[in-house]
Amino acid sequence: MTDLVEATTRAWNDRDRAAYRDCYSPDAEVVAPGAIGTGHEALLALYDEIMASYPDNRITVERVVAQGDLLVEESRVVGTNTGPLAGPDGAPIPATGRRVSMPLVGVHVVDGDRITSTHFYWDTYDMLGQLGLLDH
């Protein structure tokens, strides 16, 4: 089952949108900071948004734990913000050109060889600080 994390990470880092999509069931639940949806359309909308904001991003998996139908990954994503970000109100925030490095946790439910639910967690406050977008 842990091979699904390898497959999603490889597809992500290779920019293979179709292979990434195929790791998920067609009706998969997708939850991430600022995004909640169901199905491949929601998954690929999140994928496209992140790729547009951080086109050079790379994910490195640091730890994977599997138990029953639950798969948890602890990873790190590093990338340069060269595209706009979606602000809290949906309005675009211009690219900063700054590089970020932040932890990412994915909690996935698996059925057979596909992910049926995925919840991603990252520290948006830390990301905005690294981008220089917070007033201190």
TrEMBL record:
Gene3D superfamilies per UniProt: 3.10.450.50
Q: Which residues form the SnoaL-like domain?
A: 5-117
Q: Which domain of life is it from?
A: Bacteria
Q: Which InterPro entries does the record match to this protein?
A: Cyclase_SnoaL-like, NTF2-like_dom_sf, SnoaL-like
What is the protein name stated in its UniProt record?
Nuclear transport factor 2 family protein
